[in-house]
Amino acid sequence: MDNIPDPPFSLEGPAFAQRVREAEEVTQTLQNNQWNFAASPKIFAIEAGCDVIAKEMVFIHNGHMQTRIGRLVMAGVGSFFNLMGPESARSQFKMVSSHILDEINRQIGSKGLYDFQEFQKYTPFQEVDFLSPSIFYQLRDLVFYGALYGGGLFPSGFENFSRSIAAGKIIHNVVFVPPMPSSDPGRPVSMMATPLSVQVPTPVVEWMEKPIYGGIVKETLHIINLLTLEPTRISHPFLPFVGEGRIVYGHQRYYLRRFVGISPKEGLRGPGVPSERASQKDESSQGGATT
Fold this sequence. Notes:
4-stranded mixed beta sheet; 19% helix; disordered N terminus; 5 helices
């Protein structure tokens, strides 16, 4: 792995100060140009970086608060990655165990993601932790971060997050690093991450958007479990309903609705979106996956 460069997070002192000045220049130029991303391709991911392969999640809604816990599996080429996603500005984040997901599967007789043949080709996985959480409150924050740490998003990713920020959402970001990275685009490493919990006050169930394409895997396998205190007939916007029942967790009985399917990524192409590839080599070996 000697040909994989050190990530920009390893910089310090005068070298890091210089990188900050350069990132500010790029950000200021883009801001002066009304965020015309096509005019500054240096902030984009140059090569295929990282994609979410599969998501196994539980949404717990008690009528006024929603808690989302997710087990994510990613495929990536590079030495470190970002996981970004738009969230409500009222969200709270923390790392948790996968116990509730395992317990749901046990009670309904499922092996979770391992039930699906499409998933088997990505095993075995490298275990990764989510590190250095940060929040981008405005487009300038997101662009500065991308310029400082070498990109990680394709043009469609910036366009998508621009719309999310304009709609009043924040962008939550965490970093993850594979123990044994790959520099071969034909052989990305598979990674399974520590579950992340997001809690937000809301009177209705709020589903997540589809992941944005990162250059490696064009589809995502989803397993979504919805737990409520009362029976519902809630549907999912892009996943089929596969079954319902009741489970017990933490001395509480829940009604379960389960949605499972494979969906295409967002941002494969779009009107006015430049090609998802640039002509020069990226020095950072960084990628970005989106939830």
